[in-house]
Each structure stands twice: as C-alpha cells, then as structure tokens.
Amino acid sequence: MDIKDIVPAKSEYLKRLTYLQDPPEKLYYYGEIPSCDRGTEPNSRFPLEGPGRPKTVAIVGSRKMTAYGETWAFKLAKELAELGVIVVSGLAIGIDAAAHRGALAGGGQTIAFLGTAISQIYPAENKGLFQEILAQNGCVLSENAPGVEIGPKLRTNSFLRRNRLISGLSDAVIIIEADVRSGSLNTASHALSQGVPVFALPGDVTRQMSRGCNGLFNKGAAAVTSVEDVLGSLFSGSIKHQKRQKIELFGSTPDETAVLKAMSRGSDTGEEIILEVRKKTPDFDVSRFNVAITTLEIRGAVKREYGNRWILS
C-alpha cells in the first residue's frame, strides 16, 4: 500500500494546520485527503454539505470506555457523518474506534491521526478498522515519516503532539469519556487554546470515566446531549437556521420524512398533511399519520399548536 506525503500549505483542506503555533512541515498518509468541493455535486446525499471546506469534528475519549461512552461516540459520529461532517479521531481502542466506526456506519468519511510512524499502524488490533477507513475514502495520517522508531519511552510525548493536529484540523472537538489525567483532555486543552469549540458528554459524577468531562465544564466546554448541540456551533446566523431546518426534514422512517416535508411546504393540519403526503404515497392513511406524528412529537421534531394543527419545532 502506497504511503503518500503532502505539505499542509498545499492542501485547501489541511491548510488550517499551518496556523498552529507548532505546524507540521509535512504529513504522511494513506487514502484520500477530503475534497473541499464535494458539495458542488447536484443532489448530494449529505443535507449539510455545501461548497467549500467540509465541516470537521473530532470525537475522542478514553481507551477504557463504558457502554454509555461507546453508545454516544458511535451515535454522534454516525449522525454527523450522515449529514456530511467529517469525523476525526486517533484510531485508538475505545472511544476513538467507536467514533470511526460510527462515521463509517453513517456512510461518511473519517480521518485517523497516528501518534506513531505512518508505517506503523497502532494499535495492531485496529488494523482491520484502518482498512475499513481507507475502503470508504477516508485517510490515516501522521507527521512521523515511514520507519521512524517511536519506542514506549517516546510514545506518550508523540501522542500528545499528535493531539494538536486532531484539534487543529477540526471545527469542534467532542470529548466523550475521560478521567482527570486522560490524554483526551490534552486534545481539549489544545482546542481551547486554538479557539476551537469544545463539547463534553456529561456523566455520572461518581463514574471515573466522567470526571474529566465534567471538569471541562468549568474550563469553557459546552455539554453535548444531541448532535444539534454541535451543529449550532458549526453553522451560524441564517446558514445555521437553514441547515437545522434541513435536518428536521429527515425522519427515522419514510412516513416521518414525508410528514416533515409536507409541513415544510405549508401543510399544518392533520387533514392537509395527509392529503399532501398522498400525492406521492396514495395509501398513506390516518393510522400511519398518527404513528408518524406521535413519534415526531416525542422526539421534539414537531409541536402540536392546538387541536389537530402542527408546527415544526
């Protein structure tokens, strides 16, 4: 497998790394560096994708993840990837791997930064994941040239240096689980000093893997309880409003999506929504409408205004 190299200043996607206090002179990588014009294709399947540099979010956390952390890392990564956001992490076991897998499940691109030489895929147990990332047009990068030996004594420092690249490439950083001395907090520290928004998953105050995340709330991090929290920082002003509105038009079932789209076209009573949906789905009836609208209301996507009149939340 070919190892390629690139100078960040010559890549529109990587250029922001040149603004770091300690920028990498060269990066080595497998796979494909993301394109900055993916959104120019008509009928893009990514609702939030548009021309220019794609939004990028880092999701990192403890190697000793809990089921709670794994679920949220996978969920957030998947939902972001489904919207066209590129997910960045460190290929480590635990939360990093869960984030990469979530992005892959969402059909999106994901990027892994190694703390070792590019020729040394570490940890070895994630070589399968490494192959999956490349198979889905992602990439694996390192600032350490092929063959560079980074032994156990130097590895900690190398991984800490790697963290500045993860945060530096990202538009937001999410810490899922971290103890008070976790390397993930180092990534958060880099992000805060770089002016990158930091989010942390709130956790049980008695749980060891939540102590680091909960402590970040006193240092400027925001809580993440849904993908919407992160999207609010990625898109601002009218763009933010337009993008969030697009998200609301995608339900978890075809019926839900049809109802949301009917409402976006001006239908607001149950009767009007059913008639609008029937234009494309003739067998859509009151029973299916009730199931869809109830589920959407529980999820907070729609609100009952009065009677049988509904509005998008």
Describe the structure.
This protein is an alpha/beta fold. It folds into 2 domains: 4-235, Rossmann fold (3-Layer(aba) Sandwich); 249-312, Arc Repressor Mutant, subunit A (Orthogonal Bundle), CATH 1.10.10. Helices cover 40% and strands 14% of the residues. It is built from 11 helices and 11 strands. The protein has helices spanning 67-82, 95-105, 127-135, 152-168, 183-194, 211-216, 227-234, 237-248, 254-264, 270-278, 286-299, and strands at residues 4-6, 27-31, 56-60, 86-89, 110-113, 139-142, 172-175, 198-200, 222-223, 302-306, 309-312. The strands form 2 sheets. A 9-stranded mixed β-sheet has the order 1-2-6-5-4-3-7-8-9, with helices on both faces. The chain has a two-stranded antiparallel sheet with strand order 10-11. Helix 9 packs across helix 10 (270-278). The longest helix is centred in the middle third of the chain and has 17 residues, at 152-168.
Q: What features would you highlight for this structure?
A:
313 residues, alpha/beta, Rossmann fold, Arc Repressor Mutant, subunit A, nine-stranded mixed β-sheet, two-stranded antiparallel sheet, 11 helices, 11 strands
